[in-house]
Amino acid sequence: MVTSSDPLRLDQQACFPLYAASNLIQQLYHPLLKPLGLTYSQYLVMLVLWELSDQQTDISISDIKKRLKLDIGTLSPLLKRMEKAGHLQRQRSDKDERRVIITLTDHAKALREQARDIPACLFNQVGISLEELRTLREHVIHLVEKLEQANAQRR
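Given the sequence above, the corresponding structure tokens read:
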């Protein structure tokens, strides 16, 4: 007999609500990003690139990898597709051939203005208060920090 305290029940997993929320968020983003020609993953890369391009000139793949907490096997094909779509250019650094520098195209820079209202549109669709959203964000950031610590100890 399976009880509600069975640790292998889906409703007992802490990871599942996060997984489901992530999938549902991506579904809400899809119609907002489609006119921009971006997938959700590409949108996250663009957010990093828009932010970093305001602060520095040489943005490396490792900068993006670190911010998005992605492995190179996931990030590299994503960047290749984005380059093919005309959003960015990848070029080996003159100073260190091991580093690949990412540069936004003019097209990608223009997308930033088109994307400006997306966070507000998504927030309005979800219908939770700003305070609830801030609290949730703080809790998730804390969880991410704990998970990073656990992964660092595992290595």
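Residues 21-114 form a domain with the Arc Repressor Mutant, subunit A fold (CATH 1.10.10.10). Try to locate this feature in the token string yourself.
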